[in-house]
Design goal:
Radius of gyration: 22 Å
Helix content: 25-40%
Number of domains: 3
InterPro entries: PsdUridine_synth_cat_dom_sf (IPR020103), PsdUridine_synth_TruD (IPR001656), PsdUridine_synth_TruD_CS (IPR020119), PsdUridine_synth_TruD_insert (IPR011760), TruD_catalytic (IPR042214)
Strand content: 15-25%
Protein name: TRUD domain-containing protein
Largest sheet: 12 strands, mixed
Keywords: Isomerase, tRNA processing
Family: Belongs to the pseudouridine synthase TruD family.
GO molecular function: catalytic activity, acting on RNA; pseudouridine synthase activity; RNA binding
Mean pLDDT: 93
Number of strands: 16
Number of helices: 19
Amino acid sequence: MRITPEEREREQVLFREEREKYPHLFDRAPMTDADDVLRDIGIDVAWGARPLGYLRSMPQDFIVEEIDIAREVHTIDIAAPAGADETNAGPTVYADLVKIGASTFDIKARLAHLIGVSEQDIGFAGLKDRSALTSQRISIRNLKNPAPLESINEENFFIKNIRGGKGVISIGDLWGNRFTIVARLAAPLTSAQETEIRAKMQEIAESGFWNFFYLQRFGTPRLLAHRLGILLARGEYELTVKTFLTHTSPRELPYFMGIRKRLVPLWGDWEQILTEIDRFPYHFSLERAMIRYLAEHPADFTGALAAIPDQVKMWLYAYDSYVFNKKLSALIKTEVVPMELPLASSFSPADWEPYLDYFREDGVTFPLRAWRDFSFVRVASRLWPTLQSIEFHNAAFHDRFAVFSFSLPKGAYATSYLMNLFTLSSGLPMPNGIATNPVDAKKILATGSLDDVLQRFHIVLERYQQNTQDAVQE
């Protein structure tokens, strides 16, 4: 369900008004990825003491630039406007999408609306982080005239390097991503801490790191995706919908936790539930899509879930990731770890075998009924590396932050690398001691400058800065 910029702005105004009236409902503890949080997503190994590393103070603290199969890096830099390249004519328009503070799905929906194509006509190789500054390739079919792409002037994305060609970009059509990341420090590193971090970096550069699926795979901030995946795997579709709508998490603001609690006694009264959540169309966009469907088709919970297909896929794959993490954690303790493990979403019983004990614990029986009920879920035999290599580029250490640049193959998480160096934290409020001064990571590493692209996105960044200042003052 597409959210218009006007709806988003009204929601932000309401959010600020409600925060002024009920400040205690917008207060929560800083979110730190401590060992108990990691255990909840299946990561259970001994990490030892690590300094706190705070990520995503601003989106430009977390830069992701896609590397295509030919190993070309598609940067976030603003290219000189040159118009569409007509030298490679074809039915497909290719371009680079640079975005900030928004998900790939959000931008895909907005772009499709702006240029008059369906969302299915826009292809991309992989999802990029919401709370980040990212660049990725896209393909567009059925666009008769690429000229509108050149004049798009959205506050949170722009299009560059427009060219014609054949074919489409599909999920997985990339080599990986280049990351440039600022980790902010609650206190200056001691000499011993910096020495230990550098030693770990060297060890990982030589031997790799354990390839765990990190938190973003599990639906931040509530970290509920694998739990919903278990319910889907059991065929408990009504409970899946109800849990997604009403389950509360300490990582969610108390204000929204209160709304979810108010929905519990309303269960089945879909119109009344819509009245409760329609005030926040962006925050509850997925919930609204399901409840709108149920308002027209009461008790069809399979159809309600099919109204948000990308999320259903994510939840089922999150369960794959959860049991993978649990199995890898157990194998690390035995010190006998195969180079690869299968993922569970497969029709091959051999791929289920490593996880049978976990399936029994969770009351799950394979093959899943959900694979039949939701045909859009991809089921295929896939092996996943247990140890991940890294191409390390550079690092710089300062009193209150450290900057890292490295490249990872597709499917690998930057946070899965950084968790070896820091106890990670993100989101508002910030932990005590975190500085909010602007950091140009590219300048520090002598790989360019963020000046132009940050000026292009100044409206979004001013909003981030205001939210951060409000949180600090509270």
